[in-house]
Amino acid sequence: MKKIKSIVALVLVLAMSLTMWGCGGGDKSSAPATGNSGSSDSSAGGDDSSAATLQATDDGTVFNIYCWNDEFQSRFKDYYPGYKEDKKDTSKGTLSNDLGEFTVNWVITPTDDNAYQNKLDAVLPKNADASADDKVDLFLIEADYALKYVNSPVTLDVNAMGLTDEDTAEMYEYTKTVCTNTVDGTLRGVSWQATPGLFVYRRSIAKDVLGTDDPDEVQSKLGSWEDFDKVAEQAKGKGYFMLSGYDDSYRVFSNNVEKKWVSDDKVIQIDDSIWQWVDQTKTYTDKGYNNGTSLWSDEWAKDQGSSSKVFGFFYSTWGINFTLLGNSLDDAKGEEKVGNGIYGDWATCEGPASYYWGGSWICAAAGTDNQSLVVDVMRKLTCDADIATKITEDTQDYTNNMAAMKAIAESDYKSDFLGGQNHIALFAAAAEKIDISNMGPYDQGLNESFQGAMKDYFTGNVSKEDATANFYKEAVEKYPDISAPAE
Predict the structure, then answer these.
(1) How far apart are CA 24 and CA 425, in angstroms?
(2) 353: Cβ–Cβ under 8 A, 6 or more apart, which residues?
(3) To the nearest whole percent, how much of the chain has pLDDT over 70?
(4) Which of 265, 358, 386, 480 is spaced 20 to 30 A from 448 at the CA atom?
């Protein structure tokens, strides 16, 4: 169907000038990512209020979506009406609905060595002048670096595009705060998921160590870090590891800090909660309570398989349904997957502290020539209660609709993967506790640099003091606009 061309002028109050944007680099995505970009993200929290008029049109026929893996692609192709996947080339698809007929082009760039953000940084500032078929229409970002793009001219105000407050009324408030421009208060992105975290454990190992696999009883044994440490000692005595590696408990500590990574006067500050993670992880490493793996490594993934001796993992919503479930399945014939021996041997409990981890947000790219389609995608995949319910029931993901999740939490819903448990009820309770007040634009890079530097301390290669000094050195190289604290 031929679309009617419309041009909507959107006046944006920018969080930085276009010149500052061009100077900004990026830090890496949270999973999985390695390497060091060596670039500055100093413009991420800028407060330049210069204005510009950017055009968003409805005359495009190619819908370009930029992301870093196939998670959103699977949501889009399974739940957005009218989409058909190209079976010969999964990087493309077709779309036909009341907005028109489109070619959907998936541009997936892995996060390794900051490649995904580098790709965005190369194309987004020039998007308005790109050829029609090459214009970025929609792109995804993560919480740890959201402000870099939200506080910039490359994202559009989704309310001005047509997504209303009524549309987003059932979203968890923190998911909107993550993508709210800190200068002008405009909403620049929305998510189909909320990401409260839980502790996911092997039922069979819990029975051997604690004598029970019941989530309430296991929680009573793991309700504080002191209790968690006691169970780690018990697990070791039975031949198990409490955790897989150095990074497994990091987000529980880092999401319970009392101060931001960088102070208002641009000085790095390491919160006491972060130091608690360091001390715990060193103890767990020295005593053999963890298996010495690193997040996203092959060894770490293997510890989620059938031969693993690991008691459990700290995971948010996507970690259970997207990562842990995937590592509990084996390829059978063709695309068919079957349980590898531990499917159903998992369960969840709150653990020693509430936390959140990650999440993906959909942003409209300034210069898109498919404005109405972008808004429709946002409305259906992030605001529609029926679609949210269907996604959760089908995939076990925790979707960003409070009413829909409350209904499932109070229902007889059961997860076969989790041994018949209704983990949505636990997620619903945990989601209410999410606090992002200490989130900042430097989180991604500093989290990764700190974890990397401390690994050398955990393995005995350097002292704690030297590891800290190495962290400061890498941090100021990555972000030249911040400084290490005075000695």
Answers:
(1) 41
(2) 225, 252, 256
(3) 86
(4) 265
Q: How far is CA 317 from CA 74, 367, 426, in A?
A: 16, 33, 11
pLDDT tens sequence across 18-57: 333 433 333 333 333 222 333 334 333 333 333 333 567 8
Q: How far apart are CA 94 and CA 160, in angstroms?
A: 27
Report domain extents, the chain. Answer: 7-195+358-383, 197-355+412-431
- 330 pLDDT band, cuts 50/70/90, is low
pTM of the model: 0.84
Residue 13 has pLDDT above 90, yes or no: no
Identical fold between 7-195+358-383 and 197-355+412-431: yes
Q: What is the DSSP letter of 486?
A: P
Q: What would the DSSP string read from start to end of 418-462?
A: TTTB-HHHHHHHHHTT---TT--TTHHHHHHHHHHHHHHHHTTSS
The confidence band for 338, taking pLDDT boundaries of 50, 70 and 90, is low
Output the CATH code of domain 7-195+358-383: 3.40.190.10
Q: What is the mean pLDDT of residues 354-359?
A: 92
Instruction: Specify the residue for token string 């159903």.
Output: 344
Specify the CATH number of the domain 197-355+412-431.
3.40.190.10
Distance, in Å, from the CA atom of 480 to the CA atom of 128, rounded to the nearest integer, reads 30
pLDDT for 327:
81
Sign of the Cα torsion 309, 314, 319, 320 reads positive
Q: How far apart, in whole angstroms, are the C-alpha atoms of residue 338 and residue 2?
A: 45
- Its sign, for the CA torsion 63, 68, 69, 75, is negative
Going from the C-alpha of 362 to that of each of 184, 261, 340, 345, the distances in angstroms are: 19, 25, 34, 34
